[in-house]
Amino acid sequence: MRDLSGIVKAYDIRGVVGEQLDADIVRDFGAAFARLVGGPAVVIGHDMRDSSPGLASAFAEGVTGQGVDVVSIGLASTDMLYFASGRLNLPGAMFTASHNPAKYNGIKLCRAGAAPVGQDTGLAAIREGAEQGVPAADGVTPGSVSERDMLVEYAAYLRELVDLSGSRPLKVVVDAGNGMGGHTVPSVFAGLPIEVVPMYFELDGNFPNHEANPLDPKNVVDLQAKVVEVGADAGLAFDGDADRCFVIDERGEPVSPSTITALVAVRELVKEPGGTIIHNLITSKGVPEIVAEHGGKPVRTRVGHSFIKEQMAATGAIFGGEHSAHYYFRDFWRADTGMLAALHVLAALGEQDRPLSELTSEYGRYAASGEINSTVDDQAGRMTAVQAAFAGRDGVTVDELDGLTVNLPDGSWFNLRPSNTEPLLRLNVEAADADAVAALRDEVLALVRS
């Protein structure tokens, strides 16, 4: 029996094509998924990687072999696949490895209405089925495959949710990183009062210009320079499957995803006063402060899209944001869409006259370290050592909702979490200013790396 534990992650399937992931394995994943979700159909999309069309086709064979139809939407961003799942009310499969290098590919799965599929919500069962192999169903008429282009509907729906008709003209540089943003941005921005300066819109799964991972600062250097060079009002950087969006202000400076979360939350609270906003526990503490100040109800969750989506469903939340630039909207089937968040930012910018740096300064209150990874042999031992060093101090509080979160009496805090898939501890620190961040960061890292 196969062992697929190395490629079935907490929220998706991801591995090296030809070594960990091939057509036979993917065909069995498709069959196992079809058995889990049943009929009448599954919607499938794929990114621009060389391996994606073939793998998507193999998955479709597995699905149809179980008597379930397939609706193929072809080239798509991940949030476009979620749109299709929501609009058609069908379970979905997206073939992408997001920001990973070209040799990787993977599958993001959802139930009808873009509901998440993770380890506890079906992914473990799908893995078990694929490990054993899933033959075509006996006595069942194979399903059919139809094609449907959802791009125009997707773009129109996003423009319905955010009204930019009254915006002042804006110049925006967009770095698609040779990923799916190059496919979706032209349609979404069509007819808006926005001059788009495109960078790396050519679809190329080999990523010839830079990795499609804007979380790494080196991958937004070109965008930062171009924004300043052309005098743009803002810059947007999308990852490979274009479900995450990072924002650059007119000075070429990155805008924290926590700041974007707070800005979009305030806009959503205007539409629904008193609404609930979800934020994960390593988002800036400025987010719940601002949400509360605007009459909203902040709810803190663990890191990870399945936890965000579960809490949104449980609380009826209108919006949720993560430090990793994933943004979730109730109006988008509680799924994440960086494109919709980008439209909110541009609408907020275009309806007033200040530059983006001044606008966003209202929503960014604290200094932060960003996520710092440390390779350790004994994750549990290092976590225990850090907790012991801080827990006995006056005014210090500790919680273990997700890893270890330590709040200090001066208002600073840090979170230390183990990776699910690698021998890493991930540290995030926030404090009043950069010096305080550096001091606390160094103190914790000394314990982690000792």
Question: Mind explaining what this structure looks like?
Answer:
GO terms for molecular function: intramolecular phosphotransferase activity; metal ion binding. Its cofactor is Mg(2+). Belongs to the phosphohexose mutase family. This is Phosphomannomutase/phosphoglucomutase. The chain is an alpha/beta fold and 450 residues long. The protein folds into 3 domains: 13-149, Alpha-D-Glucose-1,6-Bisphosphate, Chain A, domain 3; 150-363, Alpha-D-Glucose-1,6-Bisphosphate, subunit A, domain 3 (Alpha-D-Glucose-1,6-Bisphosphate, Chain A, domain 3, 3-Layer(aba) Sandwich); 367-448, Alpha-D-phosphohexomutase, C-terminal domain (TATA-Binding Protein, 2-Layer Sandwich), CATH 3.30.310. Helices cover 35% and strands 23% of the residues. It is built from 14 helices and 23 strands. It has helices at 23-37, 52-64, 78-88, 123-132, 151-161, 181-188, 221-230, 257-271, 286-293, 305-315, 338-350, 356-361, 379-391, 434-448; strands at residues 13-16, 41-46, 69-75, 92-95, 104-111, 115-116, 145-147, 170-175, 194-199, 234-238, 245-248, 254-255, 276-280, 297-301, 319-321, 327-329, 335-336, 367-368, 372-375, 397-399, 404-407, 413-418, 424-431. The strands form 4 sheets. Strands 1, 2, 3, 4, 5, 6 and 7 form a 7-stranded mixed β-sheet that branches. Strands 18, 19, 20, 21, 22 and 23 form a 6-stranded antiparallel β-sheet that branches. It starts with 12 loop residues before the first strand and ends with a helix. The mean pLDDT is 96.
